[in-house]
Design brief:
Length: 202
């Protein structure tokens, strides 16, 4: 039987936000406080560096390579259907995207209504999609940041759960701004998820 706040985390890359969440889960005793466990970390990329980090943290990991579905008539939907079944097997309350570089379709999202959460490296609704830091600098923004939001069929269009802001410094390039934003993501995501779980148990 799954606990009331169990999580499955989806990643595609280095998994630094996943690590921040896993550390928060342990250090803040989410299992005792909210009935929360990280049931699995699933990646769509076999070579994702975050898989080894998750294993080092003692977490269950799985790989579902999206490229294996390229031969299907509708590869995106076929992948999402397979991912849906993988995730459902762990019976999570929340599906947490932590650098998961796939746009999820209704095939997946319909199984987890208002239960899929993402973090995006901009102050939404500004700069949805990719290349957020380059676009912020090109627009002359003086502040940037990150947003935790509910995932819907609209790319980065779900309602905002929480945000964190950082300054854009004179002379910043995209990499420098990205690093400043990422440091705040590691604080923001556990904070936002903790608030969601606390509301779920009250």
């Amino acid at each position: 039987m799954a606990a009331m706040n169990d999580l499955v985390i989806l990643i595609s890359g280095g998994g630094s936000n996943m690590v921040a969440l896993a550390q928060a889960c342990q250090q803040r005793q989410w299992a005792r406080r909210f009935g929360a466990r990280i049931r699995a970390v699933i990646s769509n990329r076999p070579q994702a560096a975050g898989l080894a980090k998750a294993q080092d943290l003692g977490l269950t990991t799985e790989v579902l390579d999206h490229q294996a579905f390229a031969g299907h008539a509708q590869p995106r939907e076929a992948f999402d259907a397979a991912l849906r079944e993988r995730v459902l097997a762990f019976e999570p309350q929340w599906v947490v995207l932590a650098g998961f570089m796939r746009v999820l379709t209704p095939t997946f999202l319909s199984a987890f209504p208002q239960r899929v959460i993402n973090i995006h490296p901009s102050l939404l609704p500004a700069f949805p999609g990719l290349h957020t830091h380059e676009r912020a600098l090109a627009a002359g923004c003086r502040v940037a940041g990150a947003t935790v939001h509910w995932v819907t069929e609209v790319l980065d269009g779900g309602s905002i759960i929480d945000q964190a802001m950082v300054p854009v410094c004179d002379g910043d390039n995209a990499d420098q701004l990205a690093a400043r934003v990422l440091s705040q993501e590691h604080l923001l995501y556990p904070r936002a998820l903790e608030r969601i779980m606390a509301q779920h148990v009250t």
